[in-house]
Amino acid sequence: GFSDVCVCVCVCCSEYGEGSVTGDMCDDLCVLGLVEYQRCLYYENGKKVIEARWRGQPIILKSKLENFSSYEPLGILDYQDTAEDLSPLDVVFYATLEVRGAGNGSLAKLWGSKLRNRDKAYSRAELASLWSLLQQEEYTFLRVLQDLSTHVAKVLGSCGHFYAVEYLSAGHAWDQNIFSLDEVAVPGLQGPARGPFTAGGARRRWTAREMVHRIALSFLDMVWHFDNDFTHRLHLCDIKPENFAIRKDLTVVAIDVDMAFFEPKMRDILDQNCTSDDDCNFFDCSSRCNRRRRRCSARRRNSNLQVICEKIFRPWFSPTLLGAKAGLPLQVELQRAVQECSETDEEKGRGRDIHQRLLNILTRLLQEGGASSEGGGSWEGGSHSHTALNF
């Protein structure tokens, strides 16, 4: 309820007033009253997810644990008289040593360059606040990918152990289009709509079907990006509509990354004892059981694309949903490609071919619809960038 949230945020603001925590949202949250509570979206086991408005912009405010004191303190502060002796690169060094799963130096590489240009050392409040954020796997994950991907939610700011991400409307399994299409904006497009269905205004000239095709192309872009553009492949082990959202330009965004793992961690998770293949399933990520060794293969058998085809594309492009258009040659070709995609394991090494085939069909469908073939593009974030603790 509101009172619970108020107590939680008020405690954070009390700590800010005492100078023990800080962040680039703190003044707006605690002093200027520019963060307005809307509703509590989730409150369980200390985890809080709050919908709010920050300077009029909708945001999601999050913390994994309820109180700042629930997080482990930064040990190095116990051995220092003041934090002023710690250079910015020292901070990255200690963070890299201690943050779980970051032993490959990715944090140091990604954030070190940003910190080298910082003149002054960090205050105790900054270090303590940063440390509470780094203990939240989702925050660390989003910060690591922030400048590398348009397909993850943007971190907008923080205060103490709370951090804000962009507000995006999640998908719904019960909606035939999965995503609400009436908020889609097409900048610069005026005049009459092109299709029989418009998404709430004359300046939107894409039909619902065209929008679905564009979103599908953005899913393909995200899959390719997560498979190929980082040091390690990124595996999504909980693929369902609720864990994705779209921006107004139809870019697909992974908004719940609690079950997203880079390749080394994925191999650790899959490498378990087994008696059958059923023992080697970790939600949407699976491998095979070597019955002689009684051990699951550490190599994932299925792929992000295969699961997206099964859980998202198949319902979208099913003959029952398409109605009269289901028999059109390109639609039939798309249905077959999606079916093959959902049945093709990664082991067969045909993932790239299937990806390319889907890309070609969807692009041709868009061209047939009279629209350009570009998928959801990049998003230029709001005017407020995450600066004071810009990690």
UniProtKB/TrEMBL annotation:
It is a single-pass type II membrane protein. Residues 7-71 form the FAM69 N-terminal domain. Residues 130-343 form the FAM69 protein-kinase domain. Pfam families: PIP49_C, PIP49_N. One of its GO terms (cellular component) is endoplasmic reticulum membrane. InterPro entries: FAM69_kinase_dom, FAM69_N, Kinase-like_dom_sf. Residues 371-391 are annotated as: Disordered. It is found in: Endoplasmic reticulum membrane. Keywords: Disulfide bond, Endoplasmic reticulum, Membrane, Signal-anchor, Transmembrane, Transmembrane helix. Belongs to the DIPK family. This is Divergent protein kinase domain 1C. It comes from Myripristis murdjan. The gene is DIPK1C.
